[in-house]
Structures are given as structure tokens and as C-alpha cells.
From TrEMBL:
It comes from Streptomyces wuyuanensis. The keyword Transmembrane does not apply. InterPro entries: Ald_DH/histidinol_DH (IPR016161), Ald_DH_C (IPR016163), Ald_DH_CS_CYS (IPR016160), Ald_DH_CS_GLU (IPR029510), Ald_DH_N (IPR016162), Aldehyde_DH_dom (IPR015590). The lineage of its organism: Bacteria, Bacillati, Actinomycetota, Actinomycetes, Kitasatosporales. Pathway: Amine and polyamine biosynthesis; betaine biosynthesis via choline pathway; betaine from betaine aldehyde: step 1/1. It comes from the Bacteria. Keywords: NAD, Oxidoreductase. Belongs to the aldehyde dehydrogenase family. This is Acyl-CoA reductase. Residues 10-476 form the Aldehyde dehydrogenase domain.
Amino acid sequence: MPELFIGGTWTAAAGGRKREIRCPADGALVASVDEAGPEDASAAVAAARDAYDSGPWPRTPAAERGELLLRTADLLERDKAEFARAESLDTGKRLVESAYDMDDVAKCFRWFGHLVAAGGHDRVVDTAPPDVDSRVVHEPVGVCSLITPWNYPLLQTSWKVAPALGAGNTFVLKPSELTPHTAVMLMRRLTEAGLPEGAANLVLGAGGVVGVPLTEDPRVDMVSFTGGLVTGRRIMAAAAPTVKKVALELGGKNPNVVFSDAAFEAAVDYAATAVFLHSGQVCSAGARLLVQEELHDAFVAEVVEQAESIRLGGPFDENARAGPLISAEHLEKVEAYVEAGLAEGAVLRCGGSRPGDPELADGFYYLPTVLDECTPDMTVVRDESFGPVLTVERFRDEEEAVALANDTVYGLAGAVWTGDPARADRVASRMRAGTVWINDFHPYVPQAEWGGMKQSGFGRELGPAGLAEYLEAKHIWRNLSPSPQRWFA
Ligand code: NAD
């Protein structure tokens, strides 16, 4: 069965090209999938446009759209094991983590399903004169290009697909070329749930080839993108000539600020999870550890001990606690960041190389790495390495901690650890990031908005704003007793 889904039909790539998908844990061939070209992107946009302009979906009552999202959530739960396995093969991620992600995907569809079905977004403007009926209604934006990354393939996709469909849009989805399988499976479940033809379309392939036309095509109304900063800039520029609505969820270089009065054991434990979870391939990874001077030595020693204890392995190795990086290119990029850090004066406390274990030789593994004595000007501190690399900086007081935390072009997430609630609140409110955790790291819920400040992007996913992103407000003013105004009399 071909893997492109255009206008309700499973279609092979027009150019007949295929791409091999290999598991990053051992290089084993997962499958060969259709590799779309610009002509396929154009056909998918045409199908989405047609479904928006003349199909039933945008005109389906909100309650029914919500029901469809709820049915999709049921199907995702029914098939969770199959989805988790496919996601692990594409990403190399531990099966247990993929299973958690699939739970979150279903929760996302369920939450948006209830939100959409509840309705209540339109409102009457009751300050209008008595002979006027004035109301604000919300309409779908139109045709959306949804472009997603490889680190949480279906989760990032669900944050876009559920609200986009819930709001009544039609879309073309382009997942990362490295991790296409769960997107293909999602299209099948949306069809099974009863989504009309053309509302959901899927193209697979390289960003530069099939992603670009999705961001330039005049028939597209909105681009929602999750991925790297450099790609985000390109997408903004590509969408500018046709003034598309754009939402960008980009990277982060997230500070984890630990004061000396923090709960020591918990702060150490979370500092390790913050950065080493999914081998650091998390947009909100706590990759910059800022520790108060007097706590520094003891704290770093404990974090290093935790880092050294992390067992690496493939998705189905039950003893493994972290998996490989996504690709050979990405592994080389992470290595280069560590080398740059060492050349610029960082001190290696652990890791800093590929593992010696011959069983891991075919995968793209990198040891959990701690770079100490870092300074804000170092490349490894400034750029997102997106690998298992923790940089450690010291601070003296609250003022310096806030200044260091905010000394980044990014503003996605951050955390503060302290036993002083007033200080926690002060630091949280001064941190320029879309999410701030106090004495915690990483949790999120679909009810709360997610997104970045500064160069981490704009627009929000999840929460009520995550639905509003896919709606346009329209003011309709009806004069109930029109009579001449005689302005020019
Ligand atoms: P990437 O930017 O390389 O690719 C993301 C997607 O964009 C892929 O589907 C790719 O094919 C496509 N693409 C690439 N160039 C394109 C172009 N010119 N036009 C259109 N599409 C194009 O990112 P990645 O390596 O897949 O993902 C890692 C990045 O994603 C990290 O920077 C990470 O921080 C970020 N991310 C952010 C969030 C968030 O919520 N803010 C979540 C997950 C990942």
C-alpha cells in the first residue's frame, strides 16, 4: 500500500521515489516509504483546498467535529501497542517511552475533542446599539500546512492535527522524513473515525523538497511548524510573500537553576532527567545547569554519578534507560559541540565520546556528557546541541541566576529549584520562557499552553490558545432597521 494520502486516496509518489527508513539503534531497515516531490505537495494542497472550499468538514457542527476527535482518541488507545512499536523503530526510542507518548497523543485528541464539542467560542457583543445584532464568530483559518520533527513524531503531530481539525480546517501534514510511520497510521485512524475525504492529507519526504512548497503555495492559509530555529526562519520568510498565518515551535536552550536551599536529592535526580531523557533530544531539555556557588561541587559530583549510571540500549532492551541519537549526522553534530566546548575551556566531567560497547556500534549512541566550568559565551552553552550534553555554570545570587538564565536567544522553558517560595515566584516571573517549572522539570498537560518566547517561536500549542491558533475571529454586524444616515446631507 502506498504511503502518501491525498484527497482520501493512498497514492505512490509521482516521481516513483522511495526512501529507506532505518532504525537509529542498529541501522536495521524498517521499511521503504514513498518519497514525495513538489508535484505531490501541490496535489495534496489542491485536495485540502477543495475539501475546505467545497467539502463538508469546515461546515460540520463543532459538536460533531469534537466527536470525531474523541473517536480518534479511542482508536489510538485501541492500537497503542502497534503505534508505540512503529514509533520506536523509527526513532530508536525505548518502547516504554513511546508507549507514554502514545498515551499523551490519545489524551491530546481527547482533550481537544471535549473542548471543541463544548463550543461556546462565539459571542454576542452586547454593547452594540439595540437595533443592531453584533456577534463575533470563529471560523477555521483554512488550509493548514503542518510540518513536524522527528523527536516526538506523533506527539508533535497530534498537537497540530487535533486542534486544526477540531477548528474545522483541512490540512496537509509533512512529518520528518526520518520518522514517517506513525503519521501514516494516524491517517488510517482518522479515516476509520469518519473524517471526510480531503480534510487530512499526508506527504512524506525531505523538508527542502516537499516542505518548501507547503510553505510557499498561495492556496495554503497557515503554516504550523515545529522544528529547528534555522528552518523556522526559512519558513517565516517563505510564508511572507503570501502573508500566511505562521505558528513556530522552535528549539530551546533551557536553564535549570538550582539554589543552595533546593531539595538536594530531588534536584540532582531531576537535573539528570531534565537533560538526559531521550538522550537530550527534547526541545525543553534542561541542557544548561546553573548551580549556586556553594552547592556546585557536591551537586555536580552527584549529577555525574547519575550520568555515568545511565545504561544505553535499543528500544526493546528492557535494561536500557536511554537510546541512540536519531542519525549519523546528528551524532556528528553533537560531537562537534562537545569538542567546541572543550576547545573553549569547558572541563569534561564524564562522557564526551561514543560508548565503547561493541553491541552498540551499529547505532548512533553518545555517552551522557557533563561539561563543567562553562561560561555564557561558549558555543555549547549558546546553541542547542539537542544531545545528551549538560553544561554547568555557577552563579552567586538571585540576580546573577536570572541574568544567566535569560542570557539566550531562546525562551522555551526553564526551571528553578529552591526551598524559598517567594524566591521561586520571583525567579519564575522574571524568566523569559513559555513554560517555567518550580521544583520540577518536564511535566506538561494538554490543558496548559505550550510554546516559546524570543527565538523559540510564537503562537501556542495545547490549551485553549492551541485551538484559537487555528481559528479566525470574524465580527458580523447586522443592522436590524436600516435607514438613511444622511452623512453628506
Ligand atoms: P528540522 O527543522 O530539521 O525539521 C523539522 C521539519 O521541518 C521536518 O519535517 C523537516 O523535513 C522540515 N523542513 C526542513 N527544512 C524545511 C524547509 N525549508 N521548509 C519546510 N520544511 C522544512 O528539525 P528536526 O531536526 O526535525 O527537529 C529538531 C528540532 O525541533 C529541535 O530544534 C527542537 O528543539 C525542535 N522542537 C521543538 C519543539 C517545541 O515544542 N518547541 C518540539 C520538538 C522539537
